Structure formats: structure tokens, C-alpha cells
Amino acid sequence: MKFSAIDVLITCVCLISIIFCSTIITIIFSSVFRSSDEYLPIIKMILFLVFFFLLLGGIYPRVLRLFCPAKDSIFSSEDSTIECLFWKQTVFSYELTVSIFAYIIPVLLRAPVYRLLGARIGKGVLIAGKIVEPQMVTLGNYSLCGEMSLLMAHAIMGDKVVLKKITIGDNVSVGAHAIIMPGVAIGDNSIIATGSLVPMDTIVPANEIWRGIPAKKWKSVDPFDVKS
């Protein structure tokens, strides 16, 4: 995927604007700590980083989605459409935020963070892995993404980028190191075994266990079985 001069220009303008806004907000909030002059530089630095990553990783992608909601798309290397431009800005935001903190954020806090970034996440969800393109991902209630698992809603094929939604139902278990590709839909109570690769556009029915590279049905599972 090529990045044009306009991509670089918009990225620089947005980054400078976010830094400026973060600085102004930091100055306003740091006035509360005037009595702590000894620690004021440290407080300012912490406040700046908090506001910078909040604006860049949380607010900016939400603004992009207001003007151009996430949807299944195919972009070429020469694509100059507004959808492609906004997608590149979303990637820029993601790479400077979630890609850095994805494995630092505690497991219990990852669901709220990904929800802030646009993922549709139900209640009781645990995410120990990483979600790329969270605005394209839906996770149902009480589902689990194991350690180092990867939900990736885009794939690069030659000079094209394929962007497709990932839908995971309720009570689904995605095993450790498993990879879920774009366009995958997994039904309720199903299990993706550890280390498996679910190829693009695969439909996994409810109440099934899939494993392997590429993942195939192994056997059915009782919806009341305990997930392993």
C-alpha cells in the first residue's frame, strides 16, 4: 500500500494539531497542582501523555468514523478515495497507540480500551491477545481471546488491501496464538483451538470446535460444555 504526499501532509497536520491540543489541555489541568511545584514537571509530562494518547487513540478515530463509518472495502495501491484516506488515518492512529500498548495493558482493561477504539464488545469479554482494526470487530458476550491471539480485519494481497468485518458470537473461545482473518464469522459457543488459523471469509457454525492451519471442523461441542 502506497502513501501519497497528501497522506503524509494530513498525517503531519493531525499529529501537530493533537500535540497542540494536548499541550493546551495539559496547561489548563496542571494549574490545579500549583501547590506541588516540586513535582509539577512530572505531573505535566504524565498529563500530556494521557491526553495525547486519548486524543490520538480514542477521539481521533471516533471523529473519522463519524464522517466515514467502517465497512467492508477493497483498496488498491493507487486508491485516492475518501474511504481509503480515512482508513490510512485510522491505521496511523492505531500504530501509535494500540500497537505500542496492546500487550502492556492488563487483560481486564483491554476490552474497555478496544471498545473505546470502536470495537463492539459484549459483557464479560476477556481479551488477552490483540485486535487489529477494532472498528471492524464484534465480540459477543462472555467470549474469550487467548494469550497472543490475533483478530486481524485487514489483509494485504499484492497491491490491494482487503478490509472485512470479523464477527464473533457469544461464549466463543479463541485459543492462544490463534489467528482470525478478515470476513470470519464464528457462531455461539464455538471454540478455535490454540495456534489455529481461520482463513478469510470462513464461516464457523455455532457449537463446533475448529483447529489446524487452515482451521477445519474437528468435532461438535455441547453448548453447555466448559470451554478449555
TrEMBL record:
Record-stated family: Belongs to the transferase hexapeptide repeat family.
Protein name stated in the entry: Acyltransferase
Matching InterPro entries: Hexapep, Trans_hexapeptide_repeat, Trimer_LpxA-like_sf
Keywords: Membrane, Transmembrane, Transmembrane helix
Membrane-spanning residues: 6-30, 42-60, 96-117
